[in-house]
From TrEMBL:
This is Retinal pigment epithelium-derived rhodopsin homolog. The keyword Transmembrane helix applies. The lineage of its organism: Eukaryota, Metazoa, Chordata, Craniata, Vertebrata. It comes from Seriola dumerili. The keyword Glycoprotein applies. The chain crosses the membrane at residues 12-32, 52-72, 93-118, 138-162, 195-217, 229-249. Belongs to the G-protein coupled receptor 1 family. GO terms for molecular function: G protein-coupled receptor activity; photoreceptor activity.
């Protein structure tokens, strides 16, 4: 869709494309290895394969929440602070996206170099952070990850979307929406889509965070086996939600998908709005 429809190549949607790559990474690399191990009955790819598999899953997970934070910041700047949002360039967005990826590289590589570690989970069919060995290294790593990649991003997102909702209510109360140079229908579609993605990410990763906290402050051996199995599965399920959310929550995505399914040419389908857009909604090619 992004290749075919130039209107979708906006700064905000470029962040969404990067988010889609994190989903593709987990689905394309993580699922086949874990499925093969499930069929085999135990981890099939040895120590090195375990380290690569676990690191990539943590990498794509950390990148996801980083990119969702960038989306929240974009929504805040576009709707609440257009004076700053209009000054944002393609380079500015690229730097924010790069920061999200580099942050993911750092946290996913630390267990490989000795801060905590990766090991097969209780089922022996997948690999993850070795929470059964709750030593000082694991506890410090877990607390740092939860603080930097869970609590802080969610706080930023809450602040951004709270201010977005306040700003929209204020404009609606003053009947000012029509006088502002913003396609509010499109902006609200993008914002709603972003909020739903964040909520589903929270639903997916909260059980895993709970297991890590339990292992840090309690006895890892008391963690029920079903919870130990379900938590990482819930986390990996986040890759399924986003494509569904794109379709449900955003009219432009729906029109583009319908156009592709029907094999419509570029000339026969129009997904763009006629209302002028803010900087973050302008095509990246400009």
């Amino acid at each position: 869709m992004f290749v075919k429809f130039k209107e979708l190549r906006t700064a905000t949607n470029f962040i969404i494309i990067n988010l889609a790559f994190t989903d593709i990474g987990v689905a394309g690399i993580g699922y086949p290895m874990s499925a093969a191990s499930d069929i085999h009955g135990s981890w099939k790819f040895g120590y090195t394969g375990c380290q690569v598999y676990a690191a990539l899953n943590i990498f794509f997970g950390m990148a996801s929440i980083g990119l969702l934070t960038v989306v929240a910041m974009d929504r805040y700047l576009t709707i609440c602070r257009p004076d700053i949002g209009q000054k944002m360039t393609v380079r500015s967005y690229n730097l924010l996206i790069l920061a999200a990826w580099l942050n993911a590289v750092f946290w996913s590589s630390m267990p490989i170099v000795g801060w905590a570690g990766y090991a097969p989970d209780p089922t022996g069919a997948t690999c993850t952070i070795n929470w059964r060995q709750n030593d000082a290294s694991f506890i410090s790593y877990t607390m740092a990850v939860i603080a930097v990649n869970f609590v802080l991003p969610l706080s930023v997102m809450f602040y951004c979307y709270y201010n977005v909702s306040v700003t929209v209510r204020r404009y609606k109360a003053g009947n000012c929406l029509d006088s502002i140079n913003v396609d509010w229908s499109d902006q609200m579609d993008v914002t709603k889509m972003s909020i739903v993605m964040i909520v589903m990410f929270l639903v997916a990763w909260s059980p895993y965070s709970l297991v890590c906290l339990w292992a840090s402050f309690g006895d890892p051996m008391t963690i029920p086996a079903p919870m130990a199995i379900i938590a990482p599965l819930f986390a990996k399920s986040s890759t399924f939600y986003n494509p569904c959310i794109y379709v449900v929550a955003n009219k432009k995505f729906r029109r583009a998908i319908i156009g592709m399914i029907r094999c419509q040419t570029r000339q026969r389908i129009t997904i763009n709005s006629q209302v002028p857009m803010t900087t973050s909604q302008q095509p990246l090619t400009q």
